[in-house]
Amino acid sequence: MKLYPRRTWKLRDFALLSAMLGVGLWAHRQPLGDIIAIGIRDEEQSHIFLAPIVAALLLWLRRSRLRYVQLTPSLLGPLVVLAGWLVSWWGFESGTQIAWHGGAVLSLLGIVLSMTGPAPLVMFGPVLAVLVFFLPVPGQLRHQIALPLQEFATTVTHTLLQLIGVGAIKSGNVLIINGEEVAVGEACNGMRMVFALTLVVYAFAFATPLRASARALLIGLSPLIAMLCNVIRLVPTSLIFGYGSVDAAQRFHDISGWVMLPVALFILIAVLRTFRWLEFPVTSLRLASQ
């Protein structure tokens, strides 16, 4: 797939790559602009703006590998660009939003591969995988996830409130506390957190020197961690709705959503410490955990 031998990068090569990316951004300005617009207007898609931050962090941690990425023009890049354009075009024509957006991102990746070859796919796989989180979650998938989250959030919150002596009545996905209705299922089902917290778990897993099995286990636990964090903020939120003002409860609900990000990190650290206490191998080298 190579067109020319490998060689080190020069200023004109960076200028050419920048120009090509500029053309790619302009060609796909509509789907990319739509992604940003969705992230701005839809609070449940907040992971869109978190994804570039996580990608930058993981790239910075792997910056020493950049010296091994030589200029290796390859036909792989144009093929990926073409495939991305076709997927994006089909997505637009068929009304398939994920294809319209995903094809644009894939096309931009192809522009980079046209000058680097497949080397970045191996060296920076975890960084490139974050691009998936940059895509808005399709409505059908969100609906399928939201329904069980609504029932889980309402049931667990109701149970915990009863355990601490609060007289709460559960009616479907609505809790009645002190005569006030709290729509836990609709407003607090966790959809605003689940993908953002999954991204935080992913960042933690690949920013820490862990075995592949430990990373897979942490990522597999991310939905449970997201639901746990959601319940942690739902109990006080419900109490404020029931015994305080609606404005105060809404402010607490919104602010606590962001507070749950560091809470998720503390939970991950606790999980890793538990694994080490159980002598479950979590690092590539045993000495790294001592």
Topology:
Layout: H1 11-27, H2 29-41, H3 47-61, H4 76-94, H5 97-116, H6 119-123, H7 125-129, H8 139-163, E1 168-171, E2 174-177, E3 180-182, H9 184-187, H10 191-207, H11 212-243, H12 246-277
Antiparallel strand pairs: 1-2, 2-3
Helix pairs in contact: 1-5, 2-5, 3-10, 4-5, 8-11, 10-11, 10-12, 11-12
Short description:
The protein is mainly alpha-helical and 290 residues long.
Kindly describe this structure.
The protein has a 3-stranded antiparallel beta sheet with strand order 1-2-3. Helix 3 runs parallel beside helix 10 and helix 11 runs antiparallel to helix 12. It is built from 12 helices and 3 strands, in the order H-H-H-H-H-H-H-H-E-E-E-H-H-H-H. It folds into 2 domains: 126 residues, no CATH class; 150 residues, no CATH class. It is mainly alpha-helical. The protein is globular. A hairpin with a 2-residue loop joins strand 1 and strand 2.
List keywords for this structure.
290 residues, mainly alpha, three-stranded antiparallel sheet, 12 helices, globular
Coarse morphology = globular
Average pLDDT metric: 82
Using only C-alpha atoms, the radius of gyration works out to: 23 Å
In terms of per-residue confidence, which ranges show pLDDT below 50 for 5 or more consecutive residues?
A: 285-290
Please outline the major beta sheet. 3 strands, antiparallel
The number of helical runs is 12
**Which structural class fits the helix and strand makeup?**
mainly alpha
Strand order of the largest sheet: 1-2-3
Helix content: over 70%
